[in-house]
């Protein structure tokens, strides 16, 4: 049995899904067809025999009524012909009382038992005159039994004809089941075939713009395979967006790296001929080379950070946002000594914590502070405020409460033009006013990426009275379990 099971499992592994589905559907329909035909055969056979037994019962009743008081004898013997009445004979329980003439129908021990009242009436099949007979043996009274027989070959012929007809119907049903199974597998797996073809085309062309054509209809009424195809289309859309984003990143990075790398090569070639330069020229070239190296290093580091978009978050810990803000503000004061940094922590926000990675959150705030200081005129402050707000439920705003946190960074510079607001978080985007300032255009893109990885949202806008205002909002819940670092 285990060998047959292993053979069946090996066959299933070597056959495509369409063949297995066709075989399964065909087998199910064929089994039903064969079962119905078999049941119909037994019903027809039973009904034909039942009708013959009813005829024997009626004949026995008529003989009993017409021959009351008669002794053992053959009452009628014409049953060898189809149109003749039933053969009938009266048999005593004692063989000594048998008539001199031989009986027409066979007399066995069960017949004597019925005559003696020791056995119930019964039907049996016998052969006489070279023909099959159906015989009823029933009590006749006073120690006698009555045997009545009719030819059974018409019934047997009808049973054989029914068997042949139903076998033909069953065979046609099996053939039809095979055709239906093939049609069902072909129709049912058509979306899967299209999905497979699309996947193979994408693998061959490496182009995720292909889509699977879906049948019309509302989404709520789609079957499982159609929903699978729709999900595959959604995955292809996400893949296309990811590939496009990667291509834009590579293109933008190559464009941004071209200028500083050219400058580095020029200064390096200039320093290689240092014997022809004056000390002042060598110093300027060396300084330009160092600044170029730092710029390229910063740009490469930013690109590496952006390329980590699909990496899982490191081990999270409960981070006190106020402490991160105090640390980054203190660092910013050393980097931008001409810019005052003012930090205000509201009531209920000093002890508020959120799950996250301290180094990544510090990088987010550092980017915002550097951006604000870069656009602030010397001596004008950069204002940082951390506050808690109520997001529903009692006790919001306290440590560990269900309230949200909001951190704002405001500068007093020229602000963000309305036409630039939708693009300030795009990679390598730099407004007209910022083209002459140092930077790669990646800081704000990285900041928003880190914010979203921690379940927060970073927005930009114009501050009241002038300047730019960046708002970092932490909801009541931490980042979702499936978050990814950016």
UniProtKB/TrEMBL annotation:
A GO cellular-component term linked to this record: plasma membrane
Limits of the HAMP domain: 186-244
Localization: Cell membrane
Name of protein: histidine kinase
Spans through the membrane: 21-44, 162-184
Organism from which the protein derives: Streptomyces filamentosus NRRL 15998
Catalysis: reaction(s): ATP + protein L-histidine = ADP + protein N-phospho-L-histidine
The UniProt record lists the keyword Lipid biosynthesis: no
GO molecular-function terms, A-Z: phosphorelay sensor kinase activity
């Amino acid at each position: 049995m285990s060998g047959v099971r292993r053979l069946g499992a090996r066959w299933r592994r070597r056959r495509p899904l369409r063949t297995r589905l066709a075989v399964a559907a065909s087998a199910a329909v064929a089994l039903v067809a064969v079962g119905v035909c078999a049941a119909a055969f037994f019903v027809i056979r039973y009904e034909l025999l039942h009708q013959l037994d009813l005829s024997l019962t009626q004949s026995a009743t008529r003989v009993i009524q017409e021959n009351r008081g008669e002794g053992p004898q053959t009452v009628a013997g014409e049953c060898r012909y189809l149109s003749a009445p039933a053969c009938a004979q009266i048999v005593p329980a004692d063989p000594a009382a048998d008539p001199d003439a031989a009986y027409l129908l066979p007399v066995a021990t069960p017949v004597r038992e019925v005559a003696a009242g020791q056995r119930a009436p019964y039907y049996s099949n016998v052969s006489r005159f070279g023909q099959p007979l159906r015989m009823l043996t029933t009590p006749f009274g006073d120690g006698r039994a009555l045997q009545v027989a009719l030819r059974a070959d018409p019934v047997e012929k009808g049973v054989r004809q029914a068997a042949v007809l139903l076998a033909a119907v069953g065979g046609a049903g099996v053939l039809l089941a095979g055709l239906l199974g093939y049609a069902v597998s072909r129709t049912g797996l058509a979306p899967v075939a299209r999905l497979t073809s699309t996947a193979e085309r994408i693998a061959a062309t490496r182009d995720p713009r292909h889509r699977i054509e879906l049948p019309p209809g509302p989404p709520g009424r789609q079957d499982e395979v159609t929903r699978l195809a729709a999900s595959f289309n959604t995955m292809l859309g996400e893949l296309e967006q990811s590939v496009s984003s990667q291509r834009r990143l590579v293109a933008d990075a190559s464009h941004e790296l071209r200028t500083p790398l050219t400058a580095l090569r020029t200064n390096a070639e200039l320093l290689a001929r240092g014997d022809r330069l004056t000390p002042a020229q060598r110093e300027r070239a060396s300084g330009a080379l160092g600044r170029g190296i730092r710029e390229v290093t910063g740009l490469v580091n930013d690109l590496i950070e952006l390329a980590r978009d699909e990496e899982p978050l490191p081990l999270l810990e409960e981070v006190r946002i106020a402490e991160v803000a105090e640390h980054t503000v203190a660092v910013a004061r050393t980097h931008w000594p001409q810019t005052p940094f003012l930090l205000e922590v509201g009531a209920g926000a000093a002890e508020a914590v959120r799950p996250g990675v301290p180094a990544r959150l510090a990088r987010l705030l550092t980017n915002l502070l550097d951006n604000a200081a870069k656009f602030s005129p010397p001596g004008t402050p950069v204002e940082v405020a951390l506050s808690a707000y109520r997001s529903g439920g009692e006790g919001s705003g306290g440590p560990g409460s269900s309230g949200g946190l909001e951190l704002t960074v405001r500068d007093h510079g020229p602000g963000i033009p309305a036409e630039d607001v939708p693009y300030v978080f795009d990679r390598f985007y730099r407004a007209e006013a910022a083209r002459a300032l140092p930077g790669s255009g990646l800081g704000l893109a990285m900041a928003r990426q880190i914010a979203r990885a921690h379940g927060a949202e970073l927005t930009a806008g114009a501050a009241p009275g002038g300047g730019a205002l960046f708002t970092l909002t932490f909801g009541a819940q931490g980042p979702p379990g499936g978050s990814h670092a950016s």
